[in-house]
Amino acid sequence: MRTRQAPTTSDAPKKPLLEERKSEFSDEQVKESWQAFITMRKEQGASDMEQLVLGRVMSKLSETQVKILLDSQLEISILERFESELVQHLRKSLDNTFVTIEKEVSEEELTKNLYTSREKFDYMAQQNPALIELKERLGLDFDF
């Protein structure tokens, strides 16, 4: 008894499910596409939280990557809610099916609140060292 073998598909060339496009794009095109997406989301009634993320800057990172600079981890979680829609929009408008998004969180500068006269003076003296000389000439003392 002979068994039938299924026809092998390795003989036929494999066809991708979607047509792959890898057009080059510029940083300016990324920004234009980002602005078009922002307009579209606002017309759809984007929430205040989404608008916070939509106000961020997007730029070209490499031939297939774009980068968005966010302020916090919270903004990353907000972006993840509509990230797939954004990627689809970018791929279509930039005519490149390999576009991906790199999310980067900028480092926040911690600012120290200045409470005492000494802290305020030290901060100002750091900005303008001539204040130290002025303080000494006038005989001022902040430790009272």
Write the CATH architecture name of the largest domain.
Answer: 2-Layer Sandwich
Overall geometric form: elongated
Number of domains: 2
- Main sheet record: 3 strands, mixed
Description:
The protein has 144 residues and is mainly alpha-helical. It has two domains: 27-105, 2-Layer Sandwich (Alpha-Beta Plaits); 111-144, no CATH class. It contains five helices and three strands, in the order H-H-E-E-H-E-H-H. A three-stranded mixed β-sheet has the order 1-2-3. The protein starts with 26 loop residues before the first helix and ends in a 6-residue tail after the last helix. 10% of the residues are buried. The mean pLDDT is 81.
Could you name the key traits of this structure?
Alpha-Beta Plaits, 46% helix, 5 helices, mainly alpha, 144 residues, elongated, 3-stranded mixed β-sheet
Question: What is the structure about, briefly put?
Answer:
This protein has five helices and three strands.
List the helices and strands and how they pair.
Blueprint: H1 27-43, H2 48-54, E1 57-60, E2 65-70, H3 73-94, E3 100-105, H4 117-127, H5 130-138
Parallel strand pairs: 2-3
Antiparallel strand pairs: 1-2
Helix pairs in contact: 1-3, 2-3
